User: What shape does this take?
Amino acid sequence: MIKPSAAQLLEGLNEPQRRAVEVASGPVLVLAGAGSGKTRVLTHRVAFLIAAHGVRPHEILAITFTNKAAGEMKERIESLVGPIARTMWISTFHSACARILRKEAQSLGYQRNFTIYDAADQVRLVRRCLKELNLDDKRFPPRGIHAVISSAKNQLIGAEEFAGMTEDFFDDTVAQTYRLYQKMLFANNAMDFDDLMVRTVELFQNFSDRLEHYQSAFHHILVDEYQDTNHAQYTLVNLLGREHRNICVVGDDDQSIYSWRGADVRNILDFEKDYPEAVVIKLEQNYRSTQTILTAANHVVGHNQDRKSKELWTELGTGDPVTVTELDDEHAEARYVAGEAMRLQQDEGYRPQDIAVFYRVNAQSRVLEDILVRYGMAYRVVGGTKFYERAEIKDAVAYLTVIDNPADSVGFGRIVNSPKRGIGAATVASLTRFADAEGLTMTAAAARAGDIADLRTAAQKSLAAFSGLLRRLAETAGKSPVAETLDEALTASGYIEALQAERTIEAEGRIENLMELVGVAEEYDRRAAGEGSLSQFLQEISLYTDIDKLAETQEALTLMTLHNAKGLEFPAVFIIGAEEGIFPHSRSLEEQNLEEERRLCYVGMTRAMKRLYFCYTTTRNLYGGRSYNMASRFLGEIPDELLRFESKAGPSRVGGGSSFIGLQPDDTGIDEAAGGGGDTASFFSVGDKVVHAVFGDGMVTGVERGGTVAVRFVDGSERKLMVDYAPLKKK
DNA sequence: GAACGCCGTGTTTTT
DNA sequence: CACGGCGTTC
Assistant: This one.
């Protein structure tokens, strides 16, 4: 590899980009508009620090928003400065803090193998706290309580402090729960996501030698997406940067879309107040989109009051108008998107992976997916139900977690009766009482099952067996790589066996997922080359999300929420559901968060390189009912001359009419007289060979109530179909 | 103890 | 509508 010289690192940069790379010391604020070459600036800046100023890579801390962004940055810097880049700290706030805390946990009274609870675990624990406090979870919904606790933590308000500032009964209850929640986390040797930051700040505030150590270690700090930092993260950056004051933050106040998660846009707006000597650089030349798209996006976000003025421009030319299409309903919308995506490929040479569809909420992907499957178009959904949130994966991970951290009672609760081994709620309650009374962890209490007087012998036996299983697994873990431990856990526990016994496609899918997890573990073992540990593996995957492994090369359309789209770009972008109540979301209207919705719209629009489409529908089925929405106000904020409007909405069709492509009811071979979805399913019986107009050959695997049959098709998929409507024939 | 089904309930975005 | 919690039944 030929390393570029310092001078070469500046080549090809525009003037402000160049300055952002060159200014080596002191605080720097880079206001980087969408598509303005921000990543380029960041990577070149780091390379320049190393090449021109002799900064050593391990003295640089670079914070990104996602693991994916971190990985990309690492790769790009490595291609500039070589493998030495690997000693840099490039990670998310969460990973960086986790790494620090692994080392320093003992100062805080934690053990270094602490477990990181994800959102579901956190809510579970809150629910348990509520139960223990005898609070009604109807009046105090665990999710809501957790949200309040989380936002307090984001502002570095601890349980005691929170208790001192409550104003009403509800807050008092939250305070009580917060206290217990924190106590339980500690007892479980566990932290939630927020704790990673909070505890790190705590460490630095209480142990000045630790703070000094890290302060002097990091000569340069870079923070990407600074507009999305919360108060805890802000504090962290300022603590760490206080000594050298070489803090470079990059962001765009117009792209601040995470205030609901505690992000505080003032962090970026006030940077110049925090650091009066800061050099401020604006990147406004855009290298991604056509001028039409940029002007449209500028107009939309220009309706916000609270922003630093900024105007994107480009040399890429005018381009096509923004297409706005009105449709009947969400099905028509999906068909339109699929059809237009196909046309773009056939007529204009787009590849599937060049096209993305963005929506406001995950639920919107379903209809779209249905249509795409029917049209035989490949797609991938980013986000949605994530791999690590699937029940079987959480179970498998819980086995590892409990082996690694026997104090983790949340994980213990997950696996104690999964697979079913006759340890029900009553037994677990006795076990919990016993553990509390004796001051033991659940794991340790289970090992003394025989001593629990109020358990029947059968329950004692089951518990003892489970405890033995855990002990054996812990032994395996002590001397084997992670993948082997996992494999052993899944086999010895009978987990896989139980799934196999189900003999369903779903269970097979679960087994496949588990095998994929084993693959992830194998990969880890290879990478760690004997240096790895179960704790470290668990930490890695607990901070891993699906967007991180988005591979661009697949020949498929990309579907994702607008939030997930941040930082990405696509030649053609569809934004669907551009309707009042959907986008902007009804809840944001109630909460006066319209400006953030508008920024979200701005983010979505500026992902598009060449073609941008908006769709809205006149009627939409939502939450079980039908709603009639108006077109999104954001569309009205785009000047007409930039738009091409078309309406494909007809007068409302009475009687509905099947909208399946090219199928007449007569083709189905079903006795129409039966009608009504009641008994028609009896026309089919299990084992029948059938043929479906779209999915091809299949076999009936089940007949259900409501005129539904389950059919397994040759492609391996299993679907539930309404016999009255599905184009299904007996063969 | 487990499986089933009812009912009520809440529905944004996620490291 | 879809999910989860909870009570009922086996």
